[in-house]
Design brief:
580 residues, four-stranded antiparallel sheet, 12 helices
């Protein structure tokens, strides 16, 4: 190769490397698909969307004319099936329990969002029915609830009425426990111990925002964390379950939750509802609040249009993939999901490190094409596949919330990815660096070919395409042997890298082998073992509780167990037990 040509190639390599470093300074982005689902039978706002044992559920809310609707809808076989509820629940609590049932409580007493109610009912996915069984200790709407390890539920929050902290005993009764230090609507209720929670909100019961944040706890005195005076937490006046933000492990006594904050400032907002300062994530680990170090700042502007991203500020954690999402939209009706890969926060080194000294969590911004019929005010819900379901809502095309004309639309945002692979979203910032590597490899290949021609060595024959994708049966046998003998599937945090280390190979070989041999992703393969083990436990120990079965089989929580059991066997765990 001549000297001028070599110099020119070297300059190209350096230019690409410099461009890659510049691109790496910004949060990586990736466009994702949005799938339009059939519309709801009843347009809804102020409703709750949950995943129960039998799938996606939309519960209560109000419909056209701002009238509460005593109905719910199940997504079954590609359509919405209308189900009657016992009461109307508009701006109510709908809390999935570890038993697989859903506790629904409170809501507005009258049309137009007026008043509060006592009504409580339970949804049982085994019978697809609602049953009224009791009353709250006091009338409530815009309330929140969280199940603690004993099976009891802590309830707090209200709207235009006094707040209080009460407990549901897990069977029939609610009782007042204590008065809160401050009055709150739609508070966060985060677990910090087996039988203790922190309760906080930046809104009072009339929608005003507090200048100073006070935290109540179930077992202890109220206090004001210093971090939350500098950084204001963001809650929402909506049916949000704080358990959606839980990223800990109850079985190990490790309690952790994520929420978002904005820097406290008295400046006027750029647009209504948009933060005036920096936005960040906070990790509540046990009883300590710390800012989450991230590899990039939270992006506040759209990478497509440059407009402001209007975040809803609520975190939805996918514990099976160790990712959390902060969702929003822009004025062109694009949907955004900021993904926080929080796995680096929980390595042994990070857990031992001082605040600010541990590993950084990775951020990736997903976005869609404009979705003109999507009501972005609706809170998303995570599906078992790791996608985000956005159903109903009350935001109109002018971005003004209009409770008289809610939307029936339903969308599925495909952000779910195979947990065994590296984040595909990283490609937006790595393609330039990959280009650098490609140029380097091309130069190396050119040099090798020239060297071979000079030495008279013929290039190696190409691999036979017919055998290039043949499954490695020996590796598959070793994988199965490892799962059968060591029962690695019982580790709820099992990753492809764990198998790769145990078998002295790499993750790509593992995932490719499973995909070619079993036509499954890594997570599907592992879950098959888990459900098989759960069935064995249920046969051998008929009286064993499903909660214990799920943990013994390697599931991170009962909800994941119930969903996976139904997906693999075609019936709920209870139906399967009854059949046996």
């Amino acid at each position: 190769m001549s000297r001028p040509r070599a110099q020119w190639i070297l300059l190209c390599v350096l230019a690409l490397f410099a461009a890659g470093v510049k691109a790496d300074e910004q949060c990586p982005t990736q466009k994702v698909a949005a799938e339009r689902l059939p519309d709801l039978n009843v347009p809804r706002g102020g409703h709750a969307v949950v995943y129960a044992d039998d799938g996606l559920m939309v519960i209560g809310g109000h419909t056209t004319g701002f009238v509460p609707t005593p109905t719910a809808e199940r997504y079954v076989d590609g359509r919405w099936q209308l189900v009657s509820t016992v009461y109307s629940h508009d701006d109510a609590m709908a809390l999935p329990l570890s038993s697989g049932r859903v506790l629904i409580a409170g809501g507005h007493e009258k049309n137009l969002g007026i008043g509060q109610s006592y009504e409580v009912e339970m949804y049982d996915p085994a019978t697809h029915s609602f049953t009224g069984f009791g009353t709250l200790d006091q009338k409530r709407t815009l309330l929140s609830g969280t199940e603690i390890d004993s099976g009891r539920v802590v309830v707090s929050g209200n709207w235009y009425a006094d707040d209080a902290i009460e407990l549901f005993d897990g069977r029939r009764h609610f009782r007042r426990v204590k008065a809160p230090a401050v009055q709150r609507s739609s508070p966060f209720i985060f677990r910090v111990a087996r039988d203790d929670v922190f309760i906080l909100s930046d809104y009072d019961v009339r929608g005003g925002r507090y200048d100073s944040i006070v935290v109540d706890r179930l077992r202890g005195e109220p206090f004001s964390p210093s971090l939350l005076q500098e950084w204001r937490p963001r809650t929402a006046q909506a049916a949000y379950n704080s358990s959606d933000a839980f990223v800990g492990d109850e079985r190990r006594g490790f309690y952790a939750s994520l929420f978002t904050v904005e820097r406290n400032t008295h400046a006027q907002p750029l647009v209504p509802g948009y933060p005036t300062g920096d936005v960040a994530f906070v990790l509540l680990r046990d009883t300590s609040f710390t800012l989450v170090p991230t590899d990039h700042p939270v992006p506040l502007l759209s990478p497509v249009t440059g407009d402001s991203i209007l975040y809803n500020f609520l975190v939805h954690a996918d514990r099976s993939r160790q990712r959390a999402y902060l969702t929003g939209c822009d004025r062109h009706f694009r949907f955004y999901a900021l993904c926080l890969d929080y796995a680096p926060l929980f390595t042994e080194a990070s857990l031992r490190a001082q605040p600010g000294e541990g590993a950084k969590a990775r951020l990736t911004l997903y976005y869609t094409d404009p979705l003109p019929d999507c009501a972005f005010h609706a809170l998303p819900t995570l599906t078992p596949d790791g996608d985000l379901a956005v159903v109903g809502g009350v935001v109109q095309p002018d971005f003004v919330a209009n409770n008289f004309f809610p939307s029936p639309s339903a969308w599925l945002i495909h952000v779910g990815q195979d947990e065994s692979s590296a984040s595909a979203a990283d490609s937006s910032r790595k393609w330039l660096l990959a280009g650098v590597a490609g140029v380097a490899l091309a130069l190396a290949a050119m040099w090798l070919m020239r060297w071979r021609r000079r030495s008279g060595e013929a290039p190696a024959a190409e691999a036979d395409p017919a055998t290039a994708r043949r499954p490695d049966s020996a590796l598959m046998d070793r994988i199965c042997q490892l799962m059968d003998e060591q029962q690695m599937f019982r580790n709820a945090d099992l990753k492809v890298s764990d198998l790769a280390s145990a078998l002295s190979t790499n993750t790509r070989y593992i995932t490719d082998c499973i995909k070619q041999s079993r036509r499954q992703t890594f997570s599907q393969f592992v879950n098959t073992y888990r459900i098989r083990h759960a069935q064995q436990l249920l046969r051998r120990h008929p009286g064993m509780k499903l909660t214990e079965v799920s943990f013994e089989s390697g599931f991170a929580n009962e909800r994941s167990f119930f969903r996976t059991f139904k997906a693999i066997t075609g019936m709920t765990a209870r139906e399967w037990v009854q059949q046996q």
